[in-house]
Amino acid sequence: MDIYGTIGPACADRKLLTEMFRLGMTGIRLNLSHAELAVCQQWTEWIRDAAEAAGVIPQLLIDLQGPELRIGALELPLELTEGNEVLLKPLNRQQKDSQTQDIGMKNSANNILPVPDILLSELKQGQQILLDDGKILLTIKQRNNEQVCCLVQRGGLLTSRKSIALSKTEIKLPTLTESDQRNIREAKKHGVTGVMLPFVRRAQDLQDLRQELQNAGAAELKIFAKIENLEGVENLNSLLPYADQIVIARGDLGNRMPMWELPVVQAKIAAMCQKAGKPFMVVTQMLASMEKNKVPTRAEVSDIFRAVSEGAASVMVTGETAAGSYPLEVIRYLCHTVECAQAYLRQA
């Protein structure tokens, strides 16, 4: 079974990465929603050096931007407080402070979120918006031309480039961004072994990615299809022939349905992959509490056991190693839990 961490500021250190590989990590993910591969050369060199020191042939996955909506850059992290208002403005155009008064907002200069233009055209009064994998919830209160005033229903600290999702709504976006195309052209020289495509909706998305890989002379790279919306779930059977591995990406997928339905959807995807003989990965919040705590919850280690018992070919942690306080301990618990689960299942 493959065990993936995610590289980020918390573990971007050659010695620390070496220890993570020695504990049993077999690969690592590089999230390209926040940076391009060309500026991550030091990180990719450290990954190769660390894996070699640990006697591991590393798997390096790049996670593309894909058809994903994200907020723009914020000068400082923004604390969104429940009951307050926040104004959405077009990402590519500046709004004057005076305009924010047109729809009755008070003290709004510090409560402005830049969002993609295509999002604003889709919004309706009363609609819900989920930010940062659903951690923050907004409801649209009022709109006037390009201005959209939202009420914060579930608050939190928001930083730049966090994800945006509309409850029960899908927006049609191109499969690959210009940044994705540049990163694909850079992939081979950085030692990339696989490409993760977010928000896969239909077989054509994967065919487009395969063609882009061929154009870049990187046809041998594996394709990891991230299932993060209902369209991807509904079309799963048609996606299977074009993906090397299916990724049950529970962050955004959990934004598309009531949370209590997510375990059922995970089980259905796992069963369909098993029946078709298609490897699959389980990812998102497997050890989320360890971003701040040195020991996981009992529910989290049970979640890892469940993924192994359902037949997952790989598991992955994201923010736990990229930005958490205890990346080495995260990998220790992840690897030991996987090993224990595998030992039990061999005897069962």
Number of helices: 12
CATH level 1 class label of the largest domain: Alpha Beta
Q: Provide the structure class.
A: alpha/beta
- Arithmetic mean pLDDT: 91
- Give me the oligomer status: single chain
Would you summarize the structure shown here?
The chain is an alpha/beta fold. It has twelve helices and 17 strands. It folds into two domains: 2-68 and 174-347, TIM Barrel (Alpha-Beta Barrel); 69-166, PK beta-barrel domain-like (M1 Pyruvate Kinase, Domain 3).
What does the model show?
The protein has 348 residues and is an alpha/beta fold. The chain has two domains: 241 residues, Alpha-Beta Barrel (TIM Barrel), CATH 3.20.20; 98 residues, Beta Barrel (M1 Pyruvate Kinase, Domain 3), CATH 2.40.33.10. Helices cover 33% and strands 23% of the residues. The chain has twelve helices and 17 strands. The strands form three sheets. It has an eight-stranded parallel β-barrel with strand order 1-2-3-13-14-15-16-17, surrounded by four helices. The protein has a seven-stranded mixed β-sheet with strand order 4-12-8-9-10-6-7. Helix 10 crosses helix 12. About 5% of the residues have low confidence.
Write the layout of secondary structure elements.
Elements (H helix, E strand, L loop, with lengths): L1 E5 L7 H10 L3 E5 L9 H13 L5 E5 L5 E2 L7 E3 L4 E6 L21 E4 L1 H4 L7 E4 L4 E9 L2 E8 L1 E3 L4 E4 L11 H9 L7 E4 L5 H13 L6 E6 L2 H5 L1 H4 L5 E5 H4 L8 H15 L3 E4 L14 H12 L4 E3 L2 H4 L4 H21 L1
Parallel strand pairs: 1-2, 1-17, 2-3, 3-13, 6-7, 13-14, 14-15, 15-16, 16-17
Antiparallel strand pairs: 4-12, 5-11, 6-10, 8-9, 8-12, 9-10
Helix pairs in contact: 1-2, 1-12, 10-12
